[in-house]
Structures are given as C-alpha cells and as structure tokens.
Amino acid sequence: MSNTLIGCLFWGAVLAALYAVRPNGGLNSLTGETAGRREKIVLLVLAASVVLLCTLPMSLSPYWNGEFPEHRNQYELMAEAILDGRLHLEYDDVDPKLLEMENPYDTMKRIELGVSVHWDHAFYNGRHYMYFGIVPVILLFLPFRLVTGVTLVTYQATQIFTGLFIVGMFALFRLVAKKFFPSLSWAAYLSLSAAFSMMSVWYLAGEPALYCTAIASGICMEVWSLYFFVKAVWDSPNDRRAVLWGVAGSLCGALAFGCRPPIALVNLLAVPMLLHYVRQKRRDGGRLLGQVALVALPYVVVGVLLMAYNYARFDNPFEFGQSYQLTVTDQSAYGSLFSHINLLQLFNGLMNNFVKFSPFREEFPHVTFSSVLVNFPALVFALFCLAQRDTLAQLKRLRLRGFMAVLCLLPVLITASEVLMSPYLMERYRADIYWLMGLLAFLSFGAFCESAPEASRKRWCFAFSAAAFLTAFKSFLLWVKPFDFNFTECFPEYLDKIESILSLGLR
To answer: Which residues are CB-contacts of 463 (< 8 A; sequence separation ≥ 6)?
Structure first.
C-alpha cells in the first residue's frame, strides 16, 4: 500500500472523527446520563485502542525492549535478588578502584581515575542497590517470575502499568463527569479522556524501560487512588462502602511512595477530600474517627514496610538511595531536601517546566521539547476557562474549590521537589505532572461547560474536542521525534515514511 493511500486513510479517519464530534452531531448531543449501549461500546473500543496505541510501540526500540539491557534491567535483577534472599544486586565485576575511592559518587573523579561503574545504581558499603522503588518488583516482577518461571522484561511492566493507567484515566474522568458535570457532552468526555491519556504517556511509549517503569507505576497507583477516593467521598451509598473505597484509595496512594516518591505528593489531594467527607459526617463523632483511622491504616503499614526496607539497605529509614547514585553528578549532598535550596535554581526550574519555548525545527516532525504549557496549548485554554468568574462560581457550588486549589499547586510542588533533588530536569520528568494537568483541564472544561449558556454549550464542547484532537496529534509528533535511542532514532528510515504518509506522499 502506497504512502499516499495510507495518508489518505489516516486523514480521512481524522476528518470522520471530527465530523462525529461536530456541534450538532449525535455524540455531542448526548451526555453521560443519556449515552446508551452503543455509545458505551464506542467508549470501550476507544479506551482499548488508546491502550494499544500507547503500549505496543514500546517494543520497537532495541535500546529499550531488552535486546540491549545494560543498566535498564534492574527490576528484573531485583526480583532474582529477592528470590535469592538478598536486597542488593550481585555483580562479579566491581572495579577495585571504586571500593578504594574516598567519595565514589564524585563523577569527575571517577572519570579522572578511569573507574568503571554499574551506571545509575545506588552504591553503599561496597554493594550495589536499586534506588528505583521496590513496589513494581513486588506487584509484577516477582509474581510473574514465580508463576511462569521466566523473567518479565522491564518494558513489559511499563506496558502493563501504562495500560492500567489509561483505563484509570477513562474511569476517573467518567466518574467525575457523572458526579459533577452532567452537561458535558459524550464527545467531549471521550476525546478529552483519550487525548489527555496520550499526552500523559507519549514519552513512556518511546523510552519505556526502567525510568519510565517507575513513572508508569507511580501515575498508575495515583490515578486509581484518586478514583477510589472520589468513589468514597462522592459516590458511596453507605459508610461501609465509603470505607472500603477509601482503604483501596489509601493503599494505592501509599504504594506510589514505593514507585516514584515525587508522584506520591499527589496524596495531598486526599486532604481536601477528607475534609469534605468529615464535614458531611461530623455528627457521627467517634464512629467517624474510626473510619478515618481505618482508611489511613494502609499509609501506616506501607510506610513502615518501606522504611524498614530502606533501613535494611542504607541504615536510614528515609533514604531511598538518592544520595548514593552512581550517575552524572555527585548527589551525596542531596540527602536532605532543604540542605541545598537555591531559589534561583528553583525559579529557573519552574520557568523551564511550565513556560519555556523552544523554536520549531526545519526537519520533520518540526516540534521540539518545550515546557508543559507550550507543548500542549490545550492546557492554556483550560486555564483560561478556569479563570472565568462563572467557572469559579460553579466550582464553589460543587464544593470543589479546595480540591482544585491543591490540584493547581501539585505540579509546582512536584517540579520543585525534582529541581531540588535532581541535577537537572529531564523531559521524562514532565510525565509526572502531565496527567495532573490533564485532570485540571478536564475539571476546568467541565465546570466551564456547566456554567455556559445552553445555546452555546454544544459549540464549547466541540471546541474542547478540537483541542483534544490537537493534543493527541502533538503527542504523536513528540513521540516520533528522534531522541534518546527511541524507535525513530534507531530506525530513521521509518521517520521518513511517517513524514511521507502525513504529507500524502508529497515529501
């Protein structure tokens, strides 16, 4: 099949999808309340399609699919270590010069002395450890190894967590729309769920192993934590059901600390939800206190287990291995979050993450890695909607202002923690907050839609859908950009083919 024909089919599908979400179309005339069986089948097909589109490409690059594992198989080795009764990774080629160094974390000194290391490991008391969170090993790698007798390849774990995350995004948006935004069209819900899922994981699809395994597991735990907490606070018919959902939410939220700690800051969203629940049930007195204690129990249990794990490795319950990394810079001074605060560095990091603009390039796919708001202008559109007086009044009526305030603050807090605890910000770190910005946008669009005049509501829902289409397409362009040994950098001929398809064979 020629590139021209494939391109025609692709753009024809895009036009058909835009036609389906037109202002007076069937999908834009329905809401979550009026959607029937056929529309829900469309939802299932769309969600499954997004999962496949975002996970199948993870196997394409030999640098990330396990063909050349190098240091990216640490989760796999950690599962084997636990089965052998160890918490460290056993290597028989440790450089004696590394053991003799006064400060083995000094990167420049290692280079000067010609010391070879196992890259991006934690190194403490002469042993190598995995500083990435242990939870993915416990949830996936160990059970898979015990049941099948073979090792789960790291990128496959990222596929699983990413797929579950995408399903969680569709489920969370569906629940939020059902409880708070009954006027949001079915077309807007579908398109925003798909687009913001793709926006959240496009980087993971290109470079899936190890680093993105941590990210995928963290955002997966947190999106389901939020779903369960929303069920507990706003969608439970009785106290017993609310407690069960709350325990599920706190368990997922607690596990996020053992996946990627910066993402676990999302647990702060539980505070406004808890306050809302307490205000509703304050007459219950001691019974309410017992419910709260039961919901908080997973945080305590998981926290104690993680601290015991850290202490067994590093003699410090609060040390995840950050201080002992063998990486691009000496991070041994990063042990305390407040020990090296540099306000200028913090300001520059925030500007870089949210408002930095990088020029477009001559060569396909033309895009460059810019900041969150520049990469995806739909998020700026959402902030515009959020700033409207009627939108804020709607959020007040729904008693969501506290939740939204914390949600607005979280991307800043996560970015600040990464600026303070990392040598520099990397593009993949934005995957920690893209999904939060997507949730913020969905809530903003939903509240704006509820407050909009009925005569213009369908047009606004179409505008939200159009913004979603642009977001999804930009996510695709960022994914195909050659970078860090991803698929198109390893096989540049396919980048040329993609360009030819999108240009209908004219280039």
So the answer is: none
Cα(330)–Cα(427) distance, integer angstroms? 21
Q: Which residues contact 127 (CB under 8 A, 6 or more apart)?
A: 88, 89
Residue 212 in contact with residue 63, Cβ under 8 Å?
no
Stretch (H or E) spanning 127 = strand 127-129
Classify each residue of 336-369 as buried b or exposed e, where b means 16 or more C-beta atoms within 10 Å of its C-beta.
Answer: eeeeeeeeeeeeebbebbbebeeeeeeebbebee
Alpha-helical (H) ranges within 257-398 are: 270-281, 286-314, 343-354, 372-375, 378-386, 389-397
Cα separation of 193 and 176, whole Å?
Answer: 12
Is the pTM higher than 0.90? The answer reads: yes
Question: Is it the case that residue 336 has pLDDT exceeding 80?
Answer: no
**Token pair in block for residue 290:** 């017992």
CA 445, CA 295: separation in Å to the nearest integer? 31
Question: Residue 363 region, left (φ>0) first, then alpha (ψ -120 to 50), else beta?
Answer: beta
pLDDT of 188 above 70 = yes
* Burial track 165-183 (b if 16+ CB lie within 10 A, e otherwise): bbbbbbbbbbbbbbebbeb
Q: Say yes or no to pLDDT of 506 above 90.
A: no
**Hey, what's the torsion of the CAs at 132, 137, 140, 141, to 10 degrees?**
110
DSSP 187-206: HHHHHHHHHHHHHHHHHHHH
Place of tokens 């000496």: 330
Tell me how far apart the 2 most distant CA atoms of the chain are, in Å.
75
Average pLDDT score over residue span 323-330? 89
Give the whole-angstrom CA distance, residue 87 versus residue 78: 7
pLDDT tens, position by position, 386-445: 999 999 999 999 999 999 999 999 999 999 999 988 878 899 999 999 999 999 999 999
Is 228 strand, coil or helix? helix
Strands 127-129 and 122-124: antiparallel
Residue 492 to residue 359: CA distance in whole angstroms: 22
* DSSP bridge partners of 185: 31
Whether a cis peptide bond, with omega within 30° of 0, leads into 365 is yes
Q: Which of 192, 163, 215, 153 is nearest to 56 (CA)?
A: 163
Question: How many whole angstroms separate alpha carbon 217 and alpha carbon 133?
Answer: 9
Q: pLDDT higher for 453 or 265?
A: 265
For residue 124, the surrounding DSSP H or E stretch is strand 122-124
Q: How far apart are the C-alpha atoms of 79 and 497, rounded to whole Å?
A: 40
121 pLDDT higher than 60 = yes
